[in-house]
Amino acid sequence: MRFGLLFPLFLTACGSSSGGDASATSSAGGSGAASGGAKRGPSAGAAGSIGSSGDGASGTASLSNGGGPAGLNSPSKPATWNSAKSATLTDEQLQTEYANWKTAHAESCTNGSWVVVNENGDVVSEGIGYGMLLAAAAADQTLFDGLWKYYQEHLDTNGLMNWTTDKCEAPGDSKQSAATDADLDVAMALVQAAARWPNGDYLAKARNLSGKIAQFESDTCSGRRVLRPGDAFGGCSDGQDPRINPSYFSPGYYKVFTHYFPDQAATWTALGDGSYQLYAVYQARMADLVPDWSGPDGSDDGSSYSYDACRTPWRVAVDYGWSGDTRAETFMQNISSWVDANGGLPKAAQAQNSAFIGSFALSGGYEQGKFDGYMSGWLNAKNLDDAPYFQGTLRVLYLLVAAGKFSSTL
Q1: Domain boundaries, the chain
Q2: pLDDT of 97-143, one tens digit each?
Q3: Nearest to 131 by CA among 158, 105, 166
Q4: Is-above-0.70 flag for pTM?
Q5: Which CATH fold would you assign to the domain 3-402?
């Protein structure tokens, strides 16, 4: 596939309306869990060409009807994008952003797998998930399959990737346990890949993974279905560390899984409802923000809005872009009210990088004028600290959502 066509082709998959954990003490973000210490358990060379070998016959996001495996609804027509979209982002900028990200953070391993490397030289499953989402968007099947290969080479006993490994670590179980946000991103990326490359059996792989997430990484607490932060800790079933992480909630993904995997629909619908109930609890007690971590009932554990929570507006903006859910709109309006009351963008951001400013910008997507002003504040901000893995990777993911080119495939 030719470089200049990648993102315009992905627009077809999105339709049109006229979709890390990080250290609280470091601007670099990365592998720690903010305000609660590192995630715990059991609780590749130069980057290749974008859209290189293995992109399928045409590299387009083919969306076919029917004919999928039993129990799966095959990718169908493109979705309407419900959120505002940036008129200033060009395809050329998105292409350049992706190419720069890949060169800076993706490496190949000698066995054909690929990794996304953080500042410590480590690989976290979060980065694998982010990378697969970006590779699917850019029709880069070589990187996508290489990252998926690495994920599968480092599974724990529940069949989910261990949250941390050394760079290009030999295959095996490092006994670090899984991180739910990464697993959700990987499952969603597999759904997107099924639309992009329909002959890769990606949808069946997504179904298998989403089922493991539902089984091992969710919990029912006082009648509410909640997302555990990992398969070995968190949630009310963990008497030692029952915390949950709002920035892992992915209500837009849940709707996609409900659509494609009807046998799992009850779990994903309940998780979506529980997520929005908890968002309301958080915003009521935090003057419209959300915490890095909380108790499973939404209770205050002392966490602030920092390098975990900064991703939450992005997660909700994806749902609004894909579904137009009024609960997402309310959440975004509340975030926007906080931003406006604190000087607007970029001033309101807790740190001058895209992890914070870009996510706040997406919260304005419920109204085009608001969104345009926020995007201007983000893209014209000076001296953004976006070189590190965490904020640099989120920057490109946020830009895809801002452009309306992050596909649900619904």
Answers
A1: 3-402
A2: 999 999 999 999 999 999 999 999 999 999 999 999 999 999 999 99
A3: 105
A4: yes
A5: Glycosyltransferase (1.50.10)
